[in-house]
Specification:
By secondary structure, this protein is an alpha/beta fold. The protein is built from eleven helices and nine strands. It has a single domain, classed as TIM Barrel. Helix content is about 45%, strand content about 15%.
Amino acid sequence: MTLTLNQMAEAARALNGPLFADLPGDLAVSFEFFPPKTPAMQESLWQAVETLVPLSPRFFSVTYGAGGSTRERTHATVARIVAETPVPAAAHLTCVNATAEELDAIADEYWAAGVRHIVALRGDPPTGPLGGAAGFQPVAGGYASAAELVAALKRRHDFEISVSCYPETHPEAANAQADLDALKAKHDAGATRAISQFFFEPDTFFRFRDKVAAAGLNVELVPGILPVSNYANLKKMAVSCGTHLPDWMGRLFDGLDDKPAARQLVAATVAAEMSRRLYAGGVRHFHFYTLNRAELSYAICHLLGVRPAQETHA
């Protein structure tokens, strides 16, 4: 039988060995949670934290609700991570609905609680990613941008500062160059790491990384990985964030709405394959948006060679 070129390519891929089995475990991971609203959600969150602690992540981050709506719950969650785990906690902080004086006080509270890492964001008002027709508007006496917040935090304490970046360009940015300029301003103000918005094709991240390097920005770029737990919800999120969903993703998740176990297996496979390709392209730190569930992130980390410390020398 004569093989076609496509068949030969597939045969070569199949014979090249497992994609994951021999990865050396030489990468770092971090995980993001959102503050729980109920005691049951608190228990679910803490189960996720305890599952992921053995992977020795660089940090756990905790989000800050739109309009500062979760300020107390974010603080409580971060404080518990600091008190009860060996993993550093990173608290999200936004400019929304807060004066500079109020944000300075929050920064002082975090420092006093042992938090040394802030994820500094401009933030979105409760009305949505674009803040309504008028867009984002700082309160009187507030900070107008993430760069202003970063500078204020660095003046206040010697925080480690992470910020956001957008491989497919922020929805409000005039163009890709303006978005790069915003990232440069945050870096110049004192940020050392930029965690990306989620995306679903490795080349999206690689192209962005090349643009950042060409702009002379020496900032650590960390891809944000979102395992797909609900494809219908993901489509809504992608629209609001300006994230492209490849056609093949729709075909993969089609027919799985009422099959959560199968959907989870597909989601883990998709995210692990993308992460493996990012790894092949030199990425050595992955930030997982957990949605307060550990299973998918843990499985992907396992495939990438990230194991509990007692297993690494087995």
